C-alpha cells in the first residue's frame, strides 16, 4: 500500500507547501486587544449613534407629517366643495 493512499483514506489531502489553513483562520480572528478600539468608539456613540443618524437624516419630517395631517383634517371637516353638489352642472355658469 502506498503512503498517498493512506492519506486519502483519512480524508485529508497532502499539503506540499506546508501551509495550514486552520491555523490561518484561528490567527485572523478578532484580536484579544484592539489598539484602535478606543479611537473608533466615538463613531457609534452620542450624536453618531444609529438612532441619531437616522433621526437627523430627515430634518423636519416630524413637523411636516403633523402639519399635513392637520391640513387634511381641516380640509375634510371645514372645507365643503359645493360646486360638485349641484344637480345641473351647466346652470351656474350662465
UniProtKB/TrEMBL annotation:
Accessory subunit of the mitochondrial membrane respiratory chain NADH dehydrogenase (Complex I), that is believed not to be involved in catalysis. Complex I functions in the transfer of electrons from NADH to the respiratory chain. The immediate electron acceptor for the enzyme is believed to be ubiquinone. It comes from the Eukaryota. It is a single-pass membrane protein. Pfam families: NDUF_B12 (PF08122). Belongs to the complex I NDUFB3 subunit family. This is NADH-ubiquinone oxidoreductase B12 subunit family-domain-containing protein. One of its GO terms (cellular component) is mitochondrial inner membrane. Its main location: mitochondrion. It is found in: Mitochondrion inner membrane. Keywords: Electron transport, Membrane, Mitochondrion, Mitochondrion inner membrane, Respiratory chain, Transmembrane, Transmembrane helix, Transport. InterPro entries: NDUFB3. One of its GO terms (biological process) is mitochondrial respiratory chain complex I assembly.
Amino acid at each position: 500500500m502506498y503512503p498517498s493512499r493512506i492519506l486519502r483514506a483519512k480524508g485529508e489531502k497532502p499539503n506540499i507547501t506546508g501551509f495550514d489553513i486552520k491555523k490561518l483562520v484561528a490567527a485572523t480572528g478578532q484580536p484579544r486587544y484592539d489598539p484602535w478600539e478606543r479611537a473608533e468608539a466615538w463613531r457609534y456613540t452620542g450624536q453618531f449613534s444609529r438612532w441619531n443618524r437616522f433621526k437627523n437624516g430627515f430634518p423636519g419630517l416630524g413637523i411636516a407629517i403633523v402639519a399635513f395631517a392637520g391640513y387634511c383634517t381641516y380640509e375634510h371637516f371645514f372645507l365643503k366643495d359645493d360646486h360638485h353638489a349641484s344637480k345641473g352642472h351647466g346652470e351656474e355658469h350662465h
